[in-house]
Amino acid sequence: MPTYELALMLRAMPKQDLKTTLTRVSHAIFNRGGIIRNIENFGFRPLPYKTSAHGLVHREANFFVFKIDTAIKAVADLKEEYSRDVDIVRQRIFKAQTDSEHSCTLEEEMLPPAYREEVQKMIEIGKTQVDRFKYKFKYNSGLDYYPFQK
């Protein structure tokens, strides 16, 4: 299952209602076979601009980010369900970036630049491009002299 980040803005509400809303959001993920990896609370903040959702104008919201693993087909169901929830002001689901494998190249980087493999490749590329862009005049004018100044 791919990893997603679910960003939620929940309306201003007491802590007990906030707890029930987060429980409802979590159960929606679990019911679709998803797994919650992490929940981050970014707190209660004023919004950068007033936002209307479900017929109400919101100027402050609780911000949460869920890191979840769920099936690709369940993402559309979650979006649809959260769009109908009156406690959720905004919701966005993003595919999380996977960490790519990086190998340690410290020994190679400690070499002088002339001996590094990547620098040698760049030098070779530069040599081929210089040869390609050299201007060579061809005397195809039919005159036995160059009519312009040299």
Give a verbal description of the structure:
This protein has 4 helices and 4 strands. With 150 residues, the chain is α+β, with helices and mostly antiparallel strands. It has a 4-stranded antiparallel beta sheet. The chain has helices spanning 15-31, 72-84, 106-109, 117-133; strands at residues 3-11, 35-53, 56-69, 88-95. It has a domain at 3-95: Alpha-Beta Plaits (2-Layer Sandwich). The model has no long low-confidence stretch (mean pLDDT 87). Strand 2 and strand 3 (56-69) form a beta hairpin. It is elongated and about 90 Å long.
Provide a short characterization of the protein structure:
This protein is α+β, with helices and mostly antiparallel strands and about 150 residues long. The chain contains 4 helices and 4 strands; from the N terminus they run E-H-E-E-H-E-H-H.
Could you outline the blueprint of secondary structure elements for this entry?
Blueprint: E1 3-11, H1 15-31, E2 35-53, E3 56-69, H2 72-84, E4 88-95, H3 106-109, H4 117-133
Antiparallel strand pairs: 1-3, 1-4, 2-3
Keywords:
150 residues; alpha+beta; four-stranded antiparallel sheet; 4 helices; 33% strand; elongated; Ribosomal_bS6; ribosomal protein
CATH class of the domain at 3-95: Alpha Beta
Helical fraction: 25-40%
- Which architecture name of the domain at 3-95 does CATH use? 2-Layer Sandwich
Number of helices: 4
- Please list the strands of the largest sheet in the order they lie side by side: 2-3-1-4
C-alpha geometry: elongated
| Biggest beta sheet attributes | 4 strands, antiparallel
CATH fold call of the domain at 3-95: Alpha-Beta Plaits
Mean pLDDT: 87
CATH superfamily of the domain at 3-95, by name, is Ribosomal protein S6/Translation elongation factor EF1B
Q: Catalogue the unreliable spans.
A: none
Strand content: 25-35%
Topology pattern, helix = H, strand = E = EHEEHEHH
Query: Which structural class do you get from the secondary structure elements?
Result: alpha+beta
- Strand runs, count: 4
